[in-house]
């Protein structure tokens, strides 16, 4: 994962420099303290001189834009008149997080009056936020003492959500072939994806000779990939000639991804085959691409592919998947797909095997079969609704260890236990319009994902954790 990067914007007032320049030493020191605190949490901080007047704010914001920061975090070091900063902050396309904190924890009756000069930034925050709202600039705000609360951790979560939102709004998804005929739940017209979210669809028509990407792949590329695969996978059961041909297909797709600057891709397996621009199904490349941070979803699902790619930018242990079968007896749900999973999340070394492919006259593909490892995770789905709306469905789940002999070693496989009995889980999921494609996100991601839903303005529902819907600020019963 590329390191999260913020621009930390210090707000101040010129009046104090004119009349009390001596207080700047301690003010500057507090700014450096917050910089160090964020760096200790793994963030890259782009700093700037303390800003008090319009030109200084404009220069700082331009620097943050040049550095392509994930968000601007504001820090009021004193009262700062909002008209000095509002224009620059309202105009930037960067996400904005307001950090409302002060140096001193205890401001009771025994506190020395001199501390007022160092701890009165909160009314500057109020001034600025009013102007941001009046200028139509969305922002997050986190409030608390920097050392005696979790406010800095909440800011970090906000930065993660900001990156996810930016990646999703800027997604470029390659679509190989047509969407699967008759499969309607995830299908959203390309122009609607662009207008409602910002997703750009880059189509590869496999029957268009002018759009062919089938220029020869150098043999040395193939041999290098085979050598790397011998280290990463159990490849003893696959024929070498079949593997060579399958990797040729995989590298053709990889080159197309790189040439087009794609953040994700999707393939309709019914459209590949000899005589088209892609002679076989790139199962192995889909699995490897997710491990590199490139999103994927099956069957022409541009929407879920874009979501997977965005999630991978913050949570590299994420994978496209699909709920396949209910395990009523053990209160679990079986996950699988034809031949694609993020190999980063496999338990042990995946097994390379040739896969029967009766769907078209195509080269025999090779897939990496593995089991989703055990651990805490979130099941994520983005469900299209009416008139360009979406429901963001989240469920905290437990990915399970096998409790006996695993007889499905020739399949992508995994089992999860939902937060409620599977009867209720499946009913709630479909009542909310959940599609049959989803993303598994490992780790403690729920808070960030909820923030993502809010940042995107989606109706956001956490199954089993709450009995209400978050939909851009309006509550409603499920």
Key descriptive features of the protein:
ten-stranded mixed sheet, 478 residues, five-stranded parallel sheet, 34% helix
Can you describe this structure?
The protein is built from 13 helices and 21 strands. The chain is elongated and about 80 Å long. It has helices at residues 14-19, 24-40, 54-66, 82-91, 122-134, 151-169, 190-196, 219-232, 240-259, 283-292, 302-312, 422-431, 446-456, and strands at 5-11, 44-46, 71-76, 96-100, 140-143, 172-176, 200-204, 264-267, 295-298, 318-321, 323-327, 332-335, 351-354, 366-369, 375-384, 390-399, 414-417, 438-442, 459-462, 468-471, 474-477. The chain has 478 residues and is an alpha/beta fold. Helices cover 34% and strands 22% of the residues. Strands 10, 11, 12, 15, 16, 17, 18, 19, 20 and 21 form a 10-stranded mixed sheet that branches. It has a 5-stranded parallel sheet with strand order 2-1-3-4-5, with helices on both faces.
Which regions have little confidence, pLDDT < 50, spanning 5+ residues?
A: 468-478
How far the N terminus sits from the C terminus, by CA atoms, comes to: 35 Å
Please summarize the sheet with the most strands: 10 strands, mixed
Q: Report the helical percentage.
A: 25-40%
Shape: elongated
Structural class: alpha/beta
């Amino acid at each position: 994962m590329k390191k999260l990067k913020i621009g930390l914007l210090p707000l101040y007032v010129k009046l104090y420099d004119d009349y009390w320049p001596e207080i700047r030493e301690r003010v500057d020191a507090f700014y450096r303290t917050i910089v160090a605190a964020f760096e200790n949490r793994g963030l890259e901080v782009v700093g700037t001189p303390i800003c008090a007047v319009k030109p200084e704010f404009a220069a700082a914001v331009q620097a943050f834009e040049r550095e392509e920061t994930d968000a601007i975090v504001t820090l009021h070091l004193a009262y700062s008149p909002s008209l000095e900063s509002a224009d620059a902050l309202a105009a930037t396309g960067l996400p904005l997080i307001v950090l409302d904190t002060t140096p001193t924890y205890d401001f009771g009756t025994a506190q020395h009056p001199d501390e007022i000069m160092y701890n009165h930034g909160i009314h500057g925050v109020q001034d600025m936020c009013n102007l941001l709202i009046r200028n139509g600039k969305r922002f997050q705000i986190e409030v608390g003492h920097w050392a005696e609360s979790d406010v800095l951790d909440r800011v970090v979560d906000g930065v993660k959500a900001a990156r996810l939102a930016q990646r999703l709004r800027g997604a470029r998804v390659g679509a190989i072939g047509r969407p699967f005929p008759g499969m309607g739940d995830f299908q959203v017209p390309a122009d609607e994806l662009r207008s409602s979210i910002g997703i750009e669809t880059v189509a590869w028509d496999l029957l268009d000779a002018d759009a062919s990407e089938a220029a020869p792949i150098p043999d040395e590329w193939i041999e290098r990939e085979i050598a790397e695969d011998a280290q990463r996978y159990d490849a003893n059961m696959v024929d070498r000639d079949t593997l060579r041909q399958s990797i040729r297909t995989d590298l053709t797709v990889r080159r197309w991804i790189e040439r087009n600057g794609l953040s994700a891709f999707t393939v309709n397996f019914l459209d590949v085959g000899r005589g088209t621009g892609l002679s076989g199904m790139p199962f192995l490349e889909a699995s490897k691409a997710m491990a590199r941070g490139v999103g994927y979803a099956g069957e022409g699902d541009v929407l879920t592919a874009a979501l997977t790619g965005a999630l991978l930018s913050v949570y590299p242990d994420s994978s496209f998947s699909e709920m396949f079968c209910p395990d009523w007896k053990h209160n679990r749900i079986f996950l699988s797909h034809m031949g694609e999973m993020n190999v980063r999340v496999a338990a042990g070394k995946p097994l390379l095997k040739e896969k029967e492919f009766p769907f078209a006259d195509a080269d025999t593909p090779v897939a990496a079969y593995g089991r989703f490892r055990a651990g805490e995770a979130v099941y994520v789905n983005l469900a299209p609704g009416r008139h360009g709306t979406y429901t963001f469905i989240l469920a905290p789940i437990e990915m399970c260890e096998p409790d006996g002999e695993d007889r499905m070693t020739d399949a992508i496989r995994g089992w999860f236990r939902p937060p409620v009995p599977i009867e209720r889980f499946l009913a709630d999921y479909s009542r909310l319009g959940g599609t049959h494609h989803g993303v598994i996100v490992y780790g403690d991601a729920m808070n960030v994902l909820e923030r993502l839903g809010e940042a995107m303005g989606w109706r956001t529902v956490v199954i089993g954790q709450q009995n209400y819907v978050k939909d851009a600020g309006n509550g409603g019963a499920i």
